[in-house]
Amino acid sequence: MTLTRRGFFVGTGAAFALYPLYARAHVVPPPPPWQANPWISIDDKGTVTIMSHRSEMGQGVRSTLPVLIADELGADPKHITVQQAWGDEQFGNQDTDGSSSVRIPFLALREAAATARMMLITAAAAHWKVPEKRLDVRDSKIWDGAKALGGFVELVHEVKSVPVPKKPKLRALKELKYVGKELPQRDAEDVVDGVALFAADGLGWNEPGPLTAVIAHPPVLFAKPTKIDSSEALKVKGVRRVIELPAPKPPIGFQALGGVAVVADNTWAAMKGRKALRIEWDRGPNAGHDTAAYTEELRASVKRAGAQMRNVGDVDAALAKAATKVEAEYTGAYLAHAAMEPPAAIADADQGSATVYACTQSPVGMRDEIAKALGLDKQKVRVNVTLLGGGFGRKSFPDFGIEAALLAREMKQRVRVQWTREDDLQHGSFHTTSVQALAAALDDKGKVTAWRHRIAYPSIDSTFDPAADKPSDGEVGMGATDLPLAVPNVRVEACKATAHMRIGWLRSVCNIPQAFAVHSFLDEIAHAAKRDPRDVMVETFGPARVLTAKELGVPKLADNYGSPLDKTPFDVARLHRVIDKVSDMAGWNRRGGRALGMAAHSSFASWVAVVASVEKGPRGELRVDEAWIAADCGYVVNPDRVRYQMEGAFLFGLSNALHGAITVKDGAVVQTNFRDYRLLRITEAPRKIHVELIASDAHPGGAGEPGTPPVAPAVANAWFALTGTRLRSMPFA
Amino acid sequence: MKLDVNGSTREVDAAPDMPLLWVLRDLLGLTGTKFGCGEALCGACTVHLDGVPVRACVTPVARAERRKVTTIEGMKNSALRLAWIDLGVPQCGFCQAGQLMSAAALLEANPKPTDDDIDHALAGNLCRCGTYVRIRAAVKKAAGGEP
Ligand code: FES
Ligand code: FES
Questions:
Q1: Which of A187, A197, A268, A655 to mutate to test the interface with B (most CBs of B within 10 A)?
Q2: Is A187 in contact with B73 (Cβ distance < 8 A)?
Q3: Where are the domains of chain B?
Q4: Which of A32, A450, A550, B141 is surrounded by the fewest CB atoms within 10 Å?
Q5: Which tens digits make up the pLDDT trace of A466-518?
């Protein structure tokens, strides 16, 4: 993205019209004297304010991007003010998804900062009458060689008349002083003091408290209330009103789910009111959905050929004349995100405008959908982003923000929508349920000569397009059609699967089932051939090379999860590097009697290899006692947070693998709370998780998601090493 | 009804069956205590009643009368806070108030906990972000031991 002049000016003045949500004192500061661009402004005391335009959901983005901008600019990151950006195109893409917050805007943000730095240098050259080329900006000072001439405060008015340079000149990475090293965590103190503000926490309580709404959502997607008896609910002390929300029309897309809201003086009253509602539902078109039967449907689907998504050589012929044939089927359950913070939003709205505070991963998306639902011009809707108590993809959907805005307008008063855990588990945007069938031909040396992978799951596309009835290109591109295979005959097929649920993105998305299937299958092949699993994996991935569409047998290879191929090609050498590294870390060749399992996977423009060590717990259950992770995420801006994302991704992957299952009966989710939708507890977490990052100057890759896909297969492979029992179905227990 | 919250007396007008969680959050504006499940399954709402950790989401406010309520906003263990910041324990932070309140109660009862002691005391505190390994290290650090 390049900055246009317009881009520079739309931010002026608008930037500070917002309450500083994270400041403990709610004072509206005066407009800044110099708004360099949407991200950077400097006030008349010389203080630099930087907009954090992505959502903070635990990945540490607020501790990362502002420091990157400050460092490139030459501001001392210890003395910057960070503001959370509201949803607005001027900040570029704000969708905090796809592990993209660093790798996608990396250059654009640095260019914005470099532009501001060059303008400060031009102003400084005139101010102190020193040639520009002798000047640098570091730690919020202007330097002439080793001599500090002054700070931003002297330049803040003069810089405004400096023309915007056409071509920003970036610093070399090694000249950056702060990034790449250990960075302080921006919101940690507020978190441990209990004053960090999440979506349900109000606007800091200098304001009168909002009303709270709890919603009885349709038990089945597209079910509609036929009879609503609110008489008992209205008797609950504190309940103000019961309001039916508009029913969505298929496809669900980004609409709210409909249902019946109970609006009350406080959350408890709203919850009690909801319990007292008597609603009869027409359960609608998805009432017959049942996961047990559906898995059989998917199993039948992968028995038949599907749409060809990747094809090289002649798989059928090679399978027919195989010396040894290995076949296996892997299944995965629906998953709910279960972020510890259930969805919540607070809204003010009238006939002409709406302002919403929400834990959203997509503030522009939420703004646009609120505008649509309320019939407003999108410029009249403001979506402010609070801290997110975890997101994992659920909060990319705007439904809870729409609900808050609709109810605030109806009540003519500020309304908070609070989802309960039951709502979160039963009405989520679910990770798909899948069946994957693999077949391989081995020659007499145990080398793979053919690979067939059939995939059936309801597609995320079905949420937006009712005709979508099989996995999409993009979905099978997550670990199936982009998998390096030095195999002469390969076919990947997408098989039919009709959707009955709202399917969405969940941390690492379709890499979860596909990585589980392919990396378990590689281990099965190794055992069938009586060879070391790592050797078979490396041999099957093949030599160091850059993958092409032609080699893969796919129509085109446009980019690497949105990262341009010239910056982040599909480079098998990087996969080798993390495999070598993790083998050293875990002592793979010296493992003796220890039950280790390995998997190595590329996703979101990063490469991650995992080794898990398992043992049997006191009740014979699977326990991971130690884990090793080697990751190549290219150049790393905030190493501690990237290591921590890998650690978190391991535990997230382990939680899914051991416990994650949403089941459906008569169209409705069976699970109600953490008693039946189990999450990993501290007692189940390994004692040690070792993470090493490969040092690299390559363009940054993703960090939040790529640690998850290899976890389940590494653990399953380790369990096989320990017990000889193969785990082919997630969750394992 | 009168409550002693973090050392000050607060007057609240709440039905006796209203859980302490909602009294703290909605009536007193103490939003550091979090709602994660409402059924004593996640620990996000952990507070102390006379120093003992309880789940505020299932504790009727009547039970907190004439007892000392301590929330994250009034939690006094600064060694824990420092260890938490030093080791960068929080990810999203949502579960952390509950983790800290459980950890503070543990250290009060057991100043030198082992890994097993920590696991046992914090088994009821879920963290979806996966901060468990650093939590163990931080508790031990706050106790003056090696992380
Ligand atoms: S909210 Fe109380 S234990 Fe989960
Ligand atoms: S830090 Fe996010 S849930 Fe624990």
A1: A268
A2: no
A3: 2-74, 78-142
A4: A550
A5: 999 999 999 999 999 999 999 999 999 999 999 999 999 999 999 999 999 99
Inter-chain touch A266–B34, beta carbons under 8 Å: no
Query: B83-129: per-residue pLDDT in tens?
Result: 999 999 999 999 999 999 999 999 999 999 999 999 999 999 999 99
Tell me the pLDDT band of B145, cut-offs 50, 70 and 90.
confident
Q: How far is CA A578 from CA A388, A695, B60, B121, in A?
A: 31, 11, 53, 36
Test A648 with B131 for CB contact under 8 angstroms.
Answer: yes
For the record, the structure tokens of A3 come out as 């900055």
Is the minimum distance from the CB of B97 to ligand 1 under 6 angstroms? no
Domain A291-336+429-558+566-730 = CATH 3.30.365.10: yes
Ligand with minimal distance to B59 CA: 1
- Separation of alpha carbons B53 and B30, rounded Å: 17
Enter the tokens of residue A702: 């993703």
Chain B residues inside the 8 Å CB shell of A342: 35-36
- DSSP E strands in A350-468: the ranges are 354-358, 381-385, 415-418, 434-442, 448-456
Per-residue model confidence (pLDDT) at position A207: 60
In 3D, which of A551, A549, A603 has the Cα closest to residue A575? A603
pTM of the prediction? Answer: 0.96
CATH class label, B2-74? alpha beta
Of the candidates A279, A96, A64, the residue with the CA atom closest to the CA atom of residue A183: A64
CA distance A87 to A69: 19
Compute, in angstroms, the gap from residue B95 CA to the centroid of ligand 1.
Answer: 10
> How, if at all, do strands A729-730 and A324-332 pair?
parallel
Q: Which CATH class is domain A199-285+343-418?
A: alpha beta
Q: Is A315 helix (H, G, I), strand (E, B) or coil?
A: helix
Closest CA to B5 of B43, B55, B61, B81: B61
Class of domain B78-142: mainly alpha
**A404 CA distance to ligand 1 middle (Å):** 23
> Are A695 and A642 spatial neighbours (Cβ–Cβ below 8 Å)?
no
Q: Which two tokens stand for residue B54?
A: 């309880």
* A585 Cβ neighbours under 8 A, 6+ residues apart: A611, A628, A630, A690, A692
For domain A5-188, give the CATH number.
Answer: 3.30.365.10
| Per-residue burial over A650-659, b = 16 or more CB atoms within 10 Å of its CB, e = otherwise | bbbbbbbbbb
| Gyration radius (Cα) of chain A, Å | 27
Residue A154: how many other CB atoms lie within 10 Å: 16
As annotated, the residues of chain A forming the CATH 3.30.365.10 domain(s) are 5-188, 199-285+343-418, 291-336+429-558+566-730
Alpha-carbon distance A393 to A200, whole Å? 19
With a 6 Å cutoff on the Cβ, whether B94 touches ligand 2 is yes
Cis peptide before A731 (omega within 30 of 0): yes
B38 and B100 Cβ atoms separated by less than 8 Å: no
- The reported pLDDT for the residue numbered B104 is 98
Look up residue A615 and give its two tokens: 């043992």
Joined tokens for residue A236: 């609950």
Q: Write out residues 189-218 of A within 8 Å (CB-CB) of B.
A: 189-198, 200-202, 205, 209, 212
Interhelix angle B132-142/B115-122, rounded to 10 degrees, is 120
Contact A390 B26 (CB under 8 A): no
For residue A348, the one-letter residue type is D
**Quick one: closest CA in B to A210, which residue?**
B26
Mean pLDDT computed over every residue of chain A: 94
A640: nearest CB among B85, B88, B92: B88
The protein residue with its alpha carbon nearest to ligand 1, atom 3, reads B40
Mean pLDDT for the stretch of residues A576-588: 98
